[in-house]
From TrEMBL, chain A:
It is found in: Nucleus. Aux/IAA proteins are short-lived transcriptional factors that function as repressors of early auxin response genes at low auxin concentrations. Keywords: Auxin signaling pathway, Nucleus, Repressor, Transcription, Transcription regulation. InterPro entries: AUX/IAA_dom, AUX_IAA, PB1-like. It comes from Canna indica (Indian-shot). It holds the Pfam family AUX_IAA. Belongs to the Aux/IAA family. Residues 90-179 form the PB1 domain. Homodimers and heterodimers. This is Auxin-responsive protein. It comes from the Eukaryota. Residues 1-60 are annotated as: Disordered. One of its GO terms (biological process) is auxin-activated signaling pathway.
Automatic annotation (TrEMBL), chain B:
Pfam families: F-box_5, Transp_inhibit. Residues 61-107 form the Transport inhibitor response domain. One of its GO terms (biological process) is SCF-dependent proteasomal ubiquitin-dependent protein catabolic process. Its main location: nucleus. GO terms for molecular function: auxin binding. Part of a SCF (SKP1-cullin-F-box) protein ligase complex. May interact with auxin and auxin-responsive proteins. SMART domains: LRR_CC. This is Transport inhibitor response 1-like protein Os04g0395600.
Length: 189, 575
């Protein structure tokens, strides 16, 4: 029963980050209880919560017309957010390499294509030039490492399959895999 | 007064500035009514459905300037369905038939069409000024008609409209003979314009004082335009970003010093911190600065700019200015009257940049502050009490705490006492927007103290009907009341039905009002239009099935002498 109850709670739509017990917020739905201060429960609940919790973007968007910002302004920002990513502002993504203690960050906008990216990462991590290699564009150099990236959907993909522009617009982070995992990927590439 | 000839009475009425005063004197006697109506030139209609256009034209045949408002305010936040109404065409047609001397038209939240704009352009030979605010339904074709046919046009001011882009030609339609422009604002247009045409238009408009460009205008073009119009007073930049190594950047740095008349700046889409440096030479004279469309400017760069703006009276910024930046505003901008702080991160990923501290700082440092719009993630009662004490002269106080129903984080109490302090202290408060956790108590305070209040916006607040009743009872000057997501029901709605005839309108959405309550209201008050807005697909069938106890999603109640409107869409039901 407990398991079922917790499952229901997990799937329940709430205004709160997943995994937190956000207090019941009055949503746009009518009829939900609004007597907040009277009910001692809500008050004590909210005092326990970390009031710094932020609602997820999805949850916030569920309340129609809130926050009261004109559509004109909202639209202007969403355009700018996209534009900023695609143009002037730079497109910084984290790069992790298996075995390396620190992550790096690179600006994908700076590179013109996969070859340059690979060269930059190679220089940064000194990974691809290990062993006997010939530097072919994005190809299998017989090294122990493979470039992978996490795309917008959260999937891990091998770098190099899609056109460069598509790659930079969907790449959220990079991971340089090593060892047997890498060899398996590279040989299929 | 009957001993005075009409010309004298008319001359006396000339001294009456406001519509309300003129409305009042026209009720004194028939003679005064006649004199007043024949001499009134500026006509203001706050609700386009309160009266038929023909009656307005008939009453004021010498009308020169007409201002009409359409949709309710909450339409700005997508709470009013797209084709609810608010059509401008009947007004333009009626004016075209009866008031050919019309010179100015100002429309807000209305649906304007290209046909309407063309009719407007062709019907009024002396037409001088068109101002459209938050309108939609038209395209650049309509603008082309205005440009083509309005000889002697002085002002074309498009503020935050949704305009369909049918190409860039419209600007070319201003004939070479058009040299009369004083104000041109096309900032809301999405498409490009022919920049050569724009430069030539600017060059042949010696009276041009206000120019607001759209985002498609690059810095390169801006430089050329500023070179041709150094006498501008009010400038809206286009896209204010350019690579600092480019020549255009260096030209930009030198463009502004020549603009000695510049007092007001806005635009700044995509603005980069480096480009903002171009403004340093003109900062000290600025009275109006709108940086609220520049999310890429971090607080420190805003501070570098604002610390020179000693004469600033009106400042619109994003919350990236931070409390630190607002402290700089407080210590620098001693002439500040209006402050608006907008959220830069609308979907709340948690960038808490301004808090109650920023607001308190500005209230403390800026003695002339009288109008505030403030978006933040938290507010405390003690902060509001301090603000109230510092600024007893508020006319407008609009606070939006982004988390609905959020209490004071220090005490976990509702914000009743804080807002109570505001209404107690600010005796001239005309407009108030509430947010945060609020009980009926805050409405008791508002009813008791907010005697000048004209517009009140409430969301996610209150416990019972008593809250709304306190407001309706106490706020004698209330004109507009808009409520969403509050537990107010029929008891509150029906407590004082006559009150609504003293107001322009009432909006209630996602409250506890039922169909039966609405029917009762409509039955008791024939001169109110009680509109029910129901967007569910099966509204037509459900109309019969709707029982009186069913709650209604949205109601819009307004006084009207025009009766139920004949242009209501299916989902609007006037009882």
């Amino acid at each position: 029963m407990e398991a079922a109850a917790s499952y229901v709670k997990d799937t329940e739509l709430r205004l709160g980050l997943p995994g937190t017990d956000a207090p019941e917020k009055p949503a746009a739905a009518r009829g939900s209880k609004r007597a907040l201060p009277e009910a001692g429960d809500d008050k004590s609940k909210s005092s326990e919560e970390d009031c710094g919790d932020r609602e997820t973007p999805v949850a916030k968007a569920q309340v129609v017309g809130w926050p009261p910002v004109r559509s004109y302004r909202k639209n202007s920002f969403s355009l700018q957010a996209r534009k900023g990513e695609a143009e002037g502002a730079g497109l910084y993504v984290k790069v992790s390499m298996d075995g390396a203690p620190y992550l790096r960050k690179i600006d994908l906008k700076v590179y013109k294509g996969y070859k340059e990216l690979r060269e930059a990462l190679d220089w940064m991590f000194k990974c691809f030039s290990q062993g006997d290699v010939s530097k072919k564009e994005g190809g299998n150099n017989g090294s122990e490492y493979a470039m992978t990236y996490e795309d917008k959907d959260g999937d891990w993909m091998l770098v190099g399959d899609v056109p460069w522009d598509m790659f930079i617009s969907s790449c959220k982070r990079l991971r340089i895999m090593k060892g047997s995992e890498a060899r398996g990927l590279e040989s299929r590439h | 007064m009957t001993y005075f000839p009409e010309e004298v009475v008319e001359h006396i009425f000339d001294f009456l500035g406001s519509h309300r005063d003129r409305n009042t004197v026209s009720t004194v006697c028939k003679a005064w009514y006649q004199v007043e109506r024949l001499s009134r030139q500026n006509v203001f209609v706050g609700n386009c459905y309160a009266i038929r256009p023909e009656r307005v034209m008939a009453r004021f045949p010498r009308m020169k300037s007409l201002s009409v408002k359409g949709k309710p305010h909450f339409a700005d936040f997508n709470l009013v369905p797209y084709d609810w109404g608010g059509y401008a065409l009947p007004w333009i047609e009626a004016a075209a038939r009866s008031c050919a001397g019309l010179e100015e038209l100002r429309l807000k939240r209305m649906v304007v069409t290209d046909d309407g704009l063309e009719l407007l352009a062709r019907s009024f030979p002396n037409f001088k000024s068109l101002v459209l605010v938050s309108c939609d339904g038209f395209s650049t074709d309509g603008l082309a008609a205005i440009a083509t046919y309005c000889r002697g046009l002085r002002e074309l001011d498009l503020q935050e409209n949704e305009v369909d882009d049918h190409g860039r030609q419209w600007l070319n339609c201003f004939p070479d003979s058009c040299t009369s422009l004083i104000s041109l604002n096309f900032a809301c247009l999405k498409g490009e314009v022919n920049t050569g045409s724009l430069e030539r238009l600017v060059a042949r408009s010696p009276n041009l004082r206000s120019l607001k460009l759209n985002r498609a205008i690059s810095v390169e073009s801006l430089n050329k335009i500023l070179a041709r119009a150094p006498h501008l007073v009010d400038l809206g930049t286009g896209s204010f970003t350019v690579d600092h190594r480019a020549e255009a950047y260096h030209r930009l740095m030198n463009s502004f010093p020549k603009c000695k008349s510049l007092r007001s700046l806005s635009g700044f889409w995509d603005a980069s911190p480096r480009c903002l440096k171009a403004l340093y030479p003109v900062c000290i004279n600025l009275t109006v600065l709108n940086l609220s469309y520049a999310p890429a400017i971090p607080g420190d760069d805003l501070i570098k700019l604002i610390c020179h703006c000693f004469k600033l009276q009106k400042l619109w910024v994003l919350d990236c200015i931070g409390d630190k930046g607002l402290a700089v505003v407080a210590s620098t901008c001693k002439e500040l009257q209006e402050l608006r702080v907008f959220p830069s991160d609308i979907y709340g990923a948690g960038n808490t940049s301004v808090t109650e501290e920023g607001l308190v700082a500005v209230s403390s440092g800026c003695p002339k502050l009288n109008s505030v719009l403030y978006f933040c993630y938290q507010m405390t009662n003690s902060a509001l009490i301090a603000v109230a004490k510092n600024c007893p002269h508020f006319i407008r106080f609009r606070l939006c705490i982004l988390d609905p129903g959020k209490p004071d984080p220090l005490t976990n109490l509702p914000l009743d006492e804080g807002f109570g302090a505001i209404v107690r202290s600010c005796k001239n408060l005309r407009r108030l927007s509430l947010s945060g956790l609020l009980t009926d108590q805050v409405f008791l305070y508002i009813g008791m103290h907010a005697k000048c209040l004209e517009m009140l916006s409430i969301a996610f607040a209150g416990n019972s009907d008593k809250g709304m009743i306190y407001v309706l009872d106490g706020c004698k000057n209330l004109r507009k009341l808009e409520i969403r997501d509050c537990p107010f029901g029929d008891g509150a709605l029906l407590k004082d039905v006559a009150k609504y005839e003293t107001m322009r309108s009432l909006w209630m959405s996602s409250c506890e009002v039922t169909l039966g309550g609405c029917k009762a209201l409509a039955a008791k008050m024939p001169r109110l239009n009680v509109e029910i807005i129901n967007e569910s697909d099966d509204f037509e069938e459900s109309k019969e099935n709707l029982v009186d106890v069913h709650k209604v999603e949205k109601i819009y109640v307004y006084r009207s002498v025009a009766g139920p409107r004949n242009d209501a869409p299916e989902f609007v039901w006037t009882l």
